[in-house]
Design a protein that fits this description.
single chain, mainly alpha
Length: 171
């Protein structure tokens, strides 16, 4: 209250104030309290450990995501190679001809079918599956040639082989 005169501090207040001043001057040198369980150094170590755990966790997450992505890419490459291989197999089994050119084309396609099957069995990487796909496409090119020689519809266009991509094009 503003109008009320101040009285002298009680003996209890004086003792408490003296204790605080004494403990502060004794326990707070160099900007930290030595009497407390947690000091600035301990807090720094906690932050450091937390940072290391965070970095290791991020690295593990990134590695797991990379492995999942590689597995998806491998599965996609396998499915693509398998699709062309099965298409080649259907054509090789269904077509027959007496003309020597047709028989030779079908024989070459059959060889590519066998080679592609072997490559698919042994493939472990996306590049190996890509090579098996290329072998199947080569066989399908022979099938197209046989169909043309037999005078029937050659079927849909095939994707360009890797060796033929960009040939004859100006860049």
């Amino acid at each position: 209250m503003p109008g009320r005169p101040r009285s002298a501090p009680s003996s209890r207040q004086t003792a408490t104030t003296a204790n605080v001043e004494r403990s502060t001057s004794r326990s707070m040198p160099n900007r930290y309290d030595k009497t407390r369980a947690v000091t600035v150094g301990v807090v720094e170590w906690i932050w450091l450990v937390l940072l290391v755990v965070l970095v290791v966790g991020a690295a593990v997450w990134f590695r797991n995501e990379s492995a999942k992505r590689r597995q998806r890419e491998l599965g996609d490459a396998r499915a693509e190679a398998q699709r062309w291989y099965e298409r080649l197999g259907g054509q090789v089994m269904q077509l027959h001809g007496e003309d020597p050119a047709v028989r030779q084309s079908l024989a070459d396609a059959g060889e590519r079918y066998t080679a592609a099957g072997s490559q698919l069995e042994q493939s472990r990487t996306a590049r190996q599956f890509e090579l098996a796909r290329e072998t199947s496409l080569e066989g399908l090119a022979y099938i197209r040639a046989a169909r043309i020689a037999m005078g029937i519809d050659p079927g849909p266009e095939l994707p360009a082989l890797a060796a033929a991509r960009g040939v004859g094009q100006l860049t």
